[in-house]
Structure formats: structure tokens, C-alpha cells
Write a structure and sequence with these properties.
By secondary structure, the protein is α/β, with parallel strands linked by helices. It has one domain: NAD(P)-binding Rossmann-like Domain (Rossmann fold, 3-Layer(aba) Sandwich). It is about 45% helix and about 15% strand. The protein has a seven-stranded parallel beta sheet, with helices on both faces. The longest helix is centred in the middle third of the chain and has 20 residues.
Length: about 230
């Protein structure tokens, strides 16, 4: 396993996977810039971060502000070693009832927001010859979910986007990790209840352990749990 990062930025860190991963890295000594819209929850997170979590107010749906904020942090800390695009929404968009504002909300966060996060300092990382970018996609990227067309489509974009970045960045020293989890206990998955069957649900802390180790080892794609990964690939 590779050495731990000195600095990292994680979006969507106020709850779920983002919160658990932020704590996992902070406990290992990484200075984590934990970004989210809900600053009150970030303050609670910082208190659990052993002094290594710095709250950052950020709404990834505001793409240019996201880029500006991440670049400022990159300047201030001497270069972010890891950037993780985890912020996401899983609102249902059933075909018979979805409106453009419903669709736009998902795409602004899961597609353009994620892309802005991942590319904000990517050229700088490539120039430095080091760094890791991580995108939290979903097993749903591989199969369309009823009532969640925009969510599934947005995650398909992210998985393929990251795969393409892996090709472009080969030999640069910059690593790209695509995480495709199934159901993890979180607010996002709570909103899916009643719309899709919840099977093989993973605790956020368990997911963070798997994700953290995959990131540090430079694993290109992490899909879990295996039961859902097998089904999605079939």
C-alpha cells in the first residue's frame, strides 16, 4: 500500500460516504479539507477529526466557484495530494412525472459538479507529476434503475469520464480511482427507499475502509459489494 496523503479534499463530506472517508483519512494523519453545503454538519465532523479536518463551505452545483475554491486551497496548502468528488444527489426522476428542474438538479451536482471538482487542479497535478483523483460513481452506472434515470445516467457519465482520464494520465504520475458502491447507509440511499429494493446494504464506516485502502493502493476501479457487482456485470 502506498504512503498516506498529507492533504486531501473531499466533497459531500457532511454525511454518508464522504463523512466516513474524511474521518478515515484524518485518523491516519491526513489534513482533510471537508467540503459540503451544510456547514453546521461540517463543524460536527471537524470535532471528530482529531484536529485534521478543515471545514470548507462548498456547493458543487456552482461549478466555477467550486473550481476557484479548490484552486485556492491547492495554493494555500502547497498542493493537494488527493481530490475526491463524492458529492451527489439521488433524487427520483420517474419518466412520467419528472420535470426539467428535477433533472437539472441531478445533473448539476452529479455531472458538471463532479467534473468541475475532478478537473479543478488536475493540470497542476500532472505538472507536479503526482496526485490522486477519485470519483464516487455507483453500481447504478452499469444498469438503468427505474425511477432513477438521471441518477443512473449521471453515474454512467462519471465512470466513463474517469476511465478516459485514466487513459490520458497514464505515465504522468497522477492516479485515477473510480469507486462504484452499491447501497451504503446514507441520506442519499434513504431517499431511494420505497423506489428500489435495498439489498446488501453496507455501513458507511465499512465502505470507508474499503475505499480508503483502494485509494492508497491506486486501484483503478473499486466495485462493491461483490453480490451487486456480480449482478450488474451479468
Amino acid at each position: 500500500m502506498s504512503a498516506d496523503f498529507k492533504t486531501a479534499l473531499i466533497t459531500g463530506a457532511s454525511s454518508g460516504i464522504g463523512r466516513a472517508v474524511a474521518i478515515w483519512f484524518a485518523r491516519r494523519g491526513t489534513i482533510v479539507y471537508a467540503a459540503a453545503r451544510r456547514t453546521s454538519m461540517l463543524e460536527e465532523l471537524a470535532a471528530a477529526g482529531h484536529g485534521n479536518i478543515i471545514p470548507v463551505a462548498l456547493d458543487v452545483a456552482k461549478e466555477q466557484a467550486t473550481v476557484d475554491t479548490i484552486q485556492r486551497i491547492d495554493d494555500e496548502c502547497g498542493g493537494l495530494e488527493m481530490v475526491m468528488a463524492n458529492a451527489g444527489v439521488g433524487d427520483p426522476t420517474p419518466a412520467q412525472h419528472s420535470t426539467w428542474p428535477m433533472v437539472e438538479r441531478v445533473l448539476k451536482v452529479n455531472v458538471t459538479g463532479a467534473a468541475a471538482t475532478l478537473t479543478a487542479v488536475l493540470p497542476r497535478m500532472a505538472k507536479r507529476g503526482r496526485g490522486t483523483i477519485v470519483g464516487v460513481s455507483s453500481i447504478a452506472a452499469n444498469r438503468g434503475l427505474g425511477a432513477f434515470s438521471c441518477y443512473s445516467g449521471s453515474k454512467a457519465f462519471l465512470s466513463v469520464f474517469l476511465e478516459s482520464l485514466q487513459v490520458d494520465l497514464h505515465g504522468t504520475g497522477v492516479k485515477v480511482v473510480c469507486v462504484e458502491p452499491g447501497y451504503v447507509k446514507s441520506e442519499l440511499n434513504d431517499r431511494m427507499k420505497g423506489h428500489v429494493p435495498m439489498m446488501f446494504v453496507v455501513e458507511a464506516e465499512h465502505a470507508a475502509e474499503k475505499i480508503g485502502r483502494a485509494i492508497l493502493s491506486g486501484k483503478r476501479v473499486l466495485t462493491f459489494p461483490w453480490q451487486l457487482a456480480w449482478g450488474a456485470a451479468g
